[in-house]
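Q: what does this look like with flavin-adenine dinucleotide bound?
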Amino acid sequence: MNDAYDIAIVGSGFAGSLLAMIAHQLGRSVILLEKNRHPRFAIGESSTPLSNILLETLATRYDLPGIAPLSKWGSWQQTYPNVASGLKRGFTFYHHVLGEPRASDPDRQHQLLVAASPHDRIADTHWYRAEVDHLFVKEAQKLGVQYLDEVTLQSVTESEKEIRLKGRRNNEDFSVGATFVVDATGPRGFLHHALALQESPLPGFPATQALFSHFTGAARFAEQISGQDSELPPYPVDDAAVHHIFDGGWIWVLQFNNGITSAGVAATDELAGRLQLSEGPAAWQRLLDLIPALKNQFANFEAIQPFTYMPRVSFRSNAVAGKRWTLLPSAAGFVDPLLSTGFPLTLLGVSRLAEIIECAWDKPEFIARVQSYASLTDNELLAAAGLIGALYGMMGRFSAFAALSMLYFAPASFSESARRLGKAHLASSFLLHDDPHFGPLMRRCCELAKSNSTQLEMDNLAHEISQAIEPINIAGFANPHRRNWYPVDANDLLNSAAKLQSTKNQISELLDRSGFWK
Ligand SMILES: Cc1cc2nc3c(=O)[nH]c(=O)nc-3n(C[C@H](O)[C@H](O)[C@H](O)COP(=O)(O)OP(=O)(O)OC[C@H]3O[C@@H](n4cnc5c(N)ncnc54)[C@H](O)[C@@H]3O)c2cc1C
């Protein structure tokens, strides 16, 4: 082990390992430090179309052939059949009233199905993080990244020349100097404690708690609702990130191909208190008892992982970077698992830091570029918090919730397509929050939703939302004729070519190139 590295990355979740690989490919000397030992349990499992194009782009740009297959279900299954994953064809939502049986839903007023891919081969995935993160770290080591696990870091000190980390490993003291440190240890992680950083509030987001585990024995939700609709849904409803929404909270259910299901609940303090989430398994059973369809789905469940109770889910650091250090977005903040915003925010951050290392390392503008990364990171967190906070407020009014969710789906699908067309500049910020047209409208709609309006005002809100997304709506969202089922339809994209500053021909080529046709 050297004593002086260009970059020390603390935390070997997929993001720390990925950035370590990229920095190594860019010629930097890198050390990756981990307090645990892989394989180990980690939460945060569901990818999205935007995260997958970001991962694919990074793997191509920085020559990481071992990582590229993870950006699609088909290539993953072909290359890594033994690394567990789940098929994610879209975002599934069902609305419930706690304590009441599920009513029949002929007009689909209590469900929302948003497809993310037209077929399995190019679909998104749920990452069984124990195995996926292990794969990432093994790839990093293969490339030549110096990796130390089971370290206990005790201090960090900065001088004119370097930043130094001290700790213990195998009962021995060690010390590592680096020019720059990246903290990839997650919320309230290493630098948060070592530098005594403070927490800042997340305006517009309620205080929430969570409880989750991994289970065997869960059935498919489709079996609980079969025969309720004469049409076939746009994709099998369980091959998705399944969200069960109720006033004050929601449950996620993600199914892996190894028989394991990840499930958990996030709820406002008020509901979490009523459910007594801090009691763990008993609270989980109490919650299932209030949702008969889910109780049936989990009739034979066994938790194979101790329940994790999070007394506070959201987090925002008051500082994201210093002269010789920065936090990855996943260490700088977190809002909520709703809508799987963690991966894309983290991967946007990895992409930005990669570019800074590539273009500005050793240059006078390096620190200013890192500071600019820090403010983008914080602004994106705030944008996600604003939208998800508004969605929390609407969990008891599903039609408004579904309307509001279009403020996520429209910019997310626009951003993915822009990037696939090589036009990332059309969608440089998460949820297009800094787009001069869409950004303010999105914020206005979220504010309106929070004002606890009458039904009439809610109808107007739905109208405002559909107007707000119109210039970026490339997938037929907010169309009442679709009755809350949104398949992926090539014609929507072809007819929206101009919105993406492209021709129909270019869209057609994109569809061919990205394997759209089965
Ligand atoms: C309940 C929940 C559900 C979520 N669901 C989703 C989802 O479905 N989709 C999504 O996109 N995002 C989700 N997220 C967010 C997601 O977890 C993060 O975006 C993602 O894990 C970030 O990955 P990472 O590699 O940066 O960090 P992490 O996965 O947090 O990894 C951090 C690593 O650092 C190590 N470490 C910690 N402290 C130290 C230390 N002091 N020294 C050395 N090493 C240390 C840890 O052992 C770990 O290996 C969820 C988050 C939560 C809390």
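The mean pLDDT is 96. The pocket of flavin-adenine dinucleotide is lined by residues 10-16, 33-36, 42-46, 153, 184-186, 189-190, 210, 212, 264, 328, 330, 337, 340, 342-343, 346 (CB under 6 Å).
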